[in-house]
Design goal:
With 636 residues, the protein is an alpha+beta fold. Helix content is 57%, strand content 6%. GO terms for molecular function: metal ion binding; metalloendopeptidase activity.
Amino acid sequence: MLSPLALPAPQEARRWLVQRCDDSLARAAQTVAELKSAQDPSAAQVVDAWNEIQIALGNASAAASVHSETHPDAAVREAGDDAMRRIDAFSTDLGLDRELSDIVGAVSDEGLDHDSARLLSRIRRDFHRSGVDRDEATRARLKELAELELAASQEFSRNIRDGVRTIRVRPEDLAGLPEDWLKDHPADDNGLVTVTTDYPDSVPLMSFCTNRATREAMTLERLNVAWPVNDEVLLRLIALRQERATLLGYATWADFDAEVKMIKTGTAIREFIDKIAAAAQDSALRDKGVVLRRMQQDVPEAQDITSVDLAYYGELVRKETYDVDAQLVRTYFDFAAVRQGLLDVTARLFGLSWVAVLDAPVWHPDVTAYDVVRDDERIGRIYLDLHPRDGKFKHAAQFDLVSGVTGRQLPEGVLVCNLTRGLMEHDEVVTLFHEFGHLIHHVVGGNQRYVRFSGVATEWDFVEAPSQMLEEWAWDPTVLASFAKNDAGQPIPAALVERMKKGEDFGKGYQARTQMFYAGLSHALYTDPQTDVTATLREQQQRYSVFPYIPGTHFHCAFGHLDGYSSGYYTYMWSLVIAKDMFSAFDPHDLFDEHVASRYRDTVLAPGGSHDAADLVADFLGRPYSFDAYAEWLAR
């Protein structure tokens, strides 16, 4: 039986991380040398050798990424960043190695099985996209660009991690916030309460605080995290990527990036954004009008509504129109119960068991480890790191720790969130279900011969679909009643959940338009020459959002997806279209139907990236995916 990765004690983390990186790079270099010295290697030998190289590099980069984003010791985070630079430099050299490219190009895929032939085609495509076939000067510049791009990317992320802002206000300026939140935020010796821009602080404040001046102060801080420092970093990152795309023969970075996604072209991205924006237009304006009119009851002179007031008055509309009191809803979602409920729900749905590993070494006391068991066999391990702290990744994401390879290594993943420790907002519950979906995909799809296809290894504009679909279980009355209970032990009433769903549907049109603003921004930045990102932000917000720009704000400086997703933020909505279609296969009255759930697990999740995403979905649905289910949902 395979054993999970033996993580170090926290005080040994830096030495362990450096050693893991050194050993992995040495193994990769040795395999490269052996492949080059082989006499007329077969295609099977080439793909097997390449798999060994990718396993070594993947193991090093996964460990480096997790530690750089989560470890409480700044020296370990810096060691992770340094390891990533060395791994990236090795990978760049690999992609520009003409001798290796010639070896790969010389073999025939005749006689290879499906996965081997698919991997060989991907290797060849990667070589072409790396620029191996360019002249020596161009290859040298591409190598330099890769180093500069990684440095800019790390700087952008580090500035967000370290850029937490605060406001300091009198206790009376926090009127309307829940009692448990206020208890966790006592006044200091000066009689002031410090509130940070971290989600558990700022999200409740924006939703419940009756004092507009306080909400406005927090809005300005939230929308200026990592400004002005990241303004220059982002411009530099965009320019580096555009130069790389140009050297490789592409008109824009968006064209280069889209080529390997389902959408295929940069032009198609803008067409998709416009299609969603048009579909959401009527609903967006209708619901915005409702919120504005509610605001005008308190502020008669208001002519428009911004993000200073949107969450607050949106909650009031849900409370007054749909009888959804978000503060009452919170009382059913104690963090510990939600975490256990999530494990129970997903275990039942996917035929898995999550077994706590109490003695597993972890990098912080908040982190919990679980073995993943299926049919009495351990198939992976997961780590949950769910609360904010200084120096930690500020959003929510799943990180690979180890990619599964059949007979070689178990898939292991880390869920990194910034959730409340006590009573949770329901939105936080949905986020937890969403991100856990990535973790399930990583583990269930981790039984692959080739690491290239392990886990969440599909086209990038599909990876969100399984997680977005899992959100549906966080809205089901029966599912929620199994773990969402108040202090008296009473489960959340089904009627309340139904009202919550109706309240959630309110505003989905303007939320879709906001998402298209983000997508339009990411596309525009990587399509048109940039000198003033804030100006581009204003233009895209005016074009797609139904809410106006707030002067003096620079949201893009903390929008981490502008780095990781670059021009591809559209993928969230693209994936949602597919998620809604896949969910249509489930019985809404029995979301645990074993036949449908197991077929979904085995046809969509288990294959990892061994087939194109469109084929996986068609295999599950029995037809190609369509826009219909999403359009129907949006119109409701």
